[in-house]
Amino acid sequence: GYQYLIAKDKSVVDALEAGTVFRRDPATLQTERVRASDYGGLFNRSRHTWNAKVFYENQPRGLTASLRAIYRGRCGFADANANTILDADNEYVSGYLLLNAAASKTLGPWLSVQAGVDNLTGYTDPAYISTLAGRLWYASLAIELGKK
Questions:
Q1: Range of 121's domain?
Q2: pTM of the model
Q3: Total domain count, the chain
Q4: CB burial of residue 86 (10 Å; 0-12, 13-18, 19+)
Q5: Is the model more confident about 105 or about 24?
Q6: Considering the domain boundaries, does residue 111 fall inside one?
Q7: Domain assignment of residue 148, yes or no
Q8: What pLDDT, in 10s, does the model give residues 133-146?
Q9: Could you tell me what percentage of the chain is helix, strand and coil, using 3-state DSSP and rounding each to the nearest 5?
Q10: pLDDT tens digits, one per residue of 38-97
Q11: Residue 71 falls within a domain, yes or no?
Q12: Can you say whether residue 109 is alpha, beta or left, with left for phi > 0 and alpha for psi between -120 and 50 degrees?
């Protein structure tokens, strides 16, 4: 699926249209009016996000496998010029792609195993996205008691 999102604070849009929002240029230290076209919207909201999943199943052999891709476009992280809005390139976090893969095998009527890896590429950005832990491997064994 794909999502295109424009998320803006209406009060900020109104203030920009009224010409009452300013910022300091970091190179010249001159104060300048922020244009409405400079406003990036709400922090932590990506304009573009998408995900896709490919799934394989072989019932006679009891095998399944999947590959999932998740993309998150750049989004605002924090205000860097003290005007409390997202309006400068250095206030953004870069977009990233995550790949997750998993496979499972049914070994009998009551036993199955699964293994996989989340964030296959090992992408991290600890300074800005602390929730991305890097590559995460996992395995599981499922036993269904009482099944004949």
A1: 2-143
A2: 0.85
A3: 1
A4: buried
A5: 105
A6: yes
A7: no
A8: 999 999 999 999 98
A9: 10, 45, 45
A10: 999 999 999 999 999 999 999 999 999 999 999 999 999 999 998 999 999 999 999 999
A11: yes
A12: alpha
